[in-house]
Amino acid sequence: MNKLPLDAIDNFFIHSKSLKLKLMNFIIEHPLERLPTSKEMAKKYGISDITVKKLVSELAVKGYLKPNKKGGTKIVNRFSNKQRQLFSKSKEEIKIQIGQLEESGFDIQEILTCLYSALSEYSFDTTDVIYTEKDPEMVFIGAEELSDRLGVKVKPVYFENMQKEISQDKKPPKAIIVPFYCFNSIEHLSSISRIFPIRTTHPLEYLSNSKNIAYDSNIMYVSVSDKDRESAFILKNKITNDHFHLKICKIEELVNNVQSVNSTEMVIAYKWVINNNERLFKNVPKIIAYNRFDDKEGLLIIKSFINSNKVGG
Questions:
Q1: Which of the following CATH numbers is that of domain 129-201+296-309: 2.40.50, 1.10.287, 3.30.110, 3.40.50?
Q2: Which CB contacts under 8 angstroms, 24+ apart, belong to 210-213?
Q3: pLDDT given at position 45
Q4: Rounded CA gap, 127 and 220, in Å?
Q5: What was the pLDDT predicted at 94?
Q6: I need a surface site. Which of 2, 202, 210, 283 has the fewest CB within 10 A?
Q7: Over 90: is that where the pLDDT of 169 sits?
Q8: CATH class of the domain comprising 203-290
Q9: Rounded alpha-carbon distances, angstroms, from residue 66 to 35, 77, 225, 292
Q10: CA 230 to chain CA centroid, nearest Å
């Protein structure tokens, strides 16, 4: 089977749109990696440096990328291992279907027509529930956990984009879930949507009450983001004593230096971190994973609202 020429497919798209799709594919399949520079991508794809920067900025605003002037643009790990595996599997299955269409005599335009028709006829699920907070990396973890615990689709929306997104939406969400520390900033939206503040608990808060840690233990807390790490250091100053040794490491640092976990006897992290990076912790004797939300009463109130108002996707 001959491979469909990529240039021919690109001719059916505005060039910047096709590049955006390529960037999205790279983002999904390469979590926590650095994005090539705008000059490198401009040269590779034959598009202007300005257009590339505009696309990168757009994807950063949507929470897919995290720009850093000194360290380059990093890809935010917003998809679980299960999602990425499903994405890759589905892509391979679609390629097989495209091959069968080509072998039967369909050309590129006709195959794209088939894909477009399938997409346009598919009814995408929407949701009336969003989760928002000020940490762009943590917001996806929170939404995924809430989706699982509430039994409905919860959409993650970065706090800075939330009000703009709601104002542009013809059908605003019925429920907005937000950490208590953000509640005062969005309380004015209560006339549009029902707002539910929820208590978040940092994993290291549990450590301060633990009496089952062996003397002189080497413990590592794996943080998700810069803000999460800052919170961890504040808590470390409150709980660290001579009983154990506590090291704080960001997940992306650990990915780049797997050996740093070798001497660790216990790893503490959010469940999302553990579930999506199992290979990193396979030799750690003890792993303690915590939920983002330790608010049974708050979750019960939200679930009751969802059930009584038939909310969700």
A1: 3.40.50
A2: 213/243, 213/244, 213/266
A3: 81
A4: 37
A5: 93
A6: 2
A7: no
A8: alpha beta
A9: 10, 10, 11, 22
A10: 20
φ/ψ of 282, rounded to 5, equals: -65, -25
Length, in residues, of the chain: 313
59-72 as b/e: b if 16+ CB within 10 A: bbeebbbbeeeeee
- What tokens does 11 get? 């001719």
Which of 82, 84, 41, 80 has its CA nearest to residue 59?
41
Q: Which token pair is 218?
A: 């080497």
- d(CA 229, CA 245) in angstroms, rounded, equals 17
The residues that bridge with 74 in the sheet, in sequence order, are: 34, 66
Alpha carbon 146 to its chain centroid, in Å, reads 13
Cα–Cα dist 244/213, whole Å: 8
Distance CA 10, CA 19 (A): 9
> In the predicted model, is pLDDT for residue 17 greater than 90?
no
pTM: 0.72
Q: Domain extents for the chain?
A: 1-123, 129-201+296-309, 203-290
